[in-house]
Structures are given as structure tokens and as C-alpha cells.
Short chain dehydrogenase (Listeria aquatica FSL S10-1188), 310 residues
Amino acid sequence: MPNKKKRKNVEGLNNKQCEIERDNQVRKSFSYLQIMLFINVIRKIYKTNDGRLKMIISNQTIIITGGTSGIGLAFAKKFLELGNRVIVIGRNQNTIDQVTLENKGLIGLQGDVSSADSVREMATFIQNHYPEASILFNSAGIMRAFNVLDEQMSLEQVTAEVTTNLNGTIWMTKALLPQLVKQQEAMIVTISSGLSYISSPIHPVYSGTKVAVHRYTDALRIQLNRTGKNIHVLEIVPPLVNETNLESNGDGESVSTRIPNMTLDKLVNEGIKGIKKNKKRVVPGFSKFLRLAGKIFPDFLANVMGKSGE
């Protein structure tokens, strides 16, 4: 008799445990379902056509800031090859003349994206002469390596780096948005950097501005998506790029250190693919590693990158 009672008690306990386990499984399944439903709701709220419809990049009029050298010029040549009208913006008229002479079909426009007055003048000129312009490619940038204790680095130089990299992108976008929203389809491209994920200690201002460009681009995309306007926003996040020299005049992004680099041709090809597919973001080459490493061991990698420039 005692053995039977024990068996019944054990069986009862086992049944109870099974019920508890089933209840836990149901709760887990329900929680998982809730999470998935929540994610779907969020996706609908922030729904975007980016990456779902192909962007036509032929027979377009494209404005490229910093288009007379570096990344900007490389993309300008590719856009021209694809059958587009391409207007390259630069500060130096002599450089513009040389670039347009060497690349038949490119149209030059002198302007300074770090000057609000110049941006207004360029926007008015573009609206009057190229009202069909539908793609803005923000590529102007300055990248300076310096020690924050260096007294030779003036406040004006620091300010120029900020206004060119950050203000220039924001101002040109703001100034041309009224024109872009009128187009059947339009796109704004920004150039941030893999250094928006991991700071480069030897490029303190540049790193800071690229973080800001990264965040600004995300905010811009979300706002424009909510308007229902057919304006796509793409962020290209290049790693360090070969075949470019360290620029300080704002006429194109360029860098040179011992960190693994990418060729300009490969960067352009990746960027063009992203534009055609209406991607939100193109993160090529070493930038993929920086994005991942920035979440795992950012401080360690930042120190390594700082030493690479010594």
C-alpha cells in the first residue's frame, strides 16, 4: 500500500510538473508572439520603400558636392558613364576647369558648402537652370589628422572641418529639398564613414562630424518616409579608400593611413548597387568590421586605430 501511494504521489507530481512545463511553454510562445507582433507594428510605423523598388540612375540630373576629387569625382565619372547629366560642385575654379576638361560631359559649378550664402546661391542657380535635378550626392568633406594640444591648429581650421562635413551636408539638403520633393522620384545620398562606428583618435573632429552625419541621415530618412514623398535617403559608409590623398580643402573625401583600405572602383560599384536597390545604407569593406567591433570592443579598437596613425 505505501508503495502504491508513493507511486501515485510521484505520478501526481510528474503530472503537475508537466502541466507547469506546458504552461511555461505556452507563456513563452505567447511572449514570442507578442514580440513578433510588436516588431511588425514598428515595421509598419517606419515602413519605407528603400530597398524594395529599383531606382533608375540613367537620364537623371545629379548634383555632387565635392565632385572635383576623391570619392565625389569617382562617382561623378560613373554617373556620367551611365548616361546622366552630372553637375560637380567645388571651391576652386581652376580645379573645376581641369576636371571638366579631362571628363567631357561633366558640368562644373563653383561653390562653398561651408558658406550658407554660397549654398543659397547654388540652390537658386540649380533651381533656375536644372529644375529637373533629382539626386543630391553630398560628398564634400575635410579630414585632418591633428593633436588636440597642437597650438598650430586654429579655431578657424576646426570650424571649417565641422561646417564642411556636417553643415554642408545639412545645408545643401535643406536648400534643395523644395526642388527634390517636386520630382516623381528623388534621392539624397550622404557620405559618412566607418569612423562613425569607431572613433579615430588622430582624426577627432572628422570622427565627430561623421557620427553626426550618420545620425542626421537616419532622422532625415524617417521624416521623409512619413511625408509619403518618394524621396529615398541612402547613407554610404566608406572605409579608408585608396587612390586618394589627404585633402584639406573640402573638395572631396579622401584618407590615407595603415588601416585596411578599399579601392575607389570597388567603393563606387558597391555604392551604385545600393543606389539602384534603394538601400538605406551601404557599408562596404572594412566598415562592416568597424560596425561590428564598435558594438563589442570600441575602446580597444579606437586605441589600435590611434596607434596606426602614429
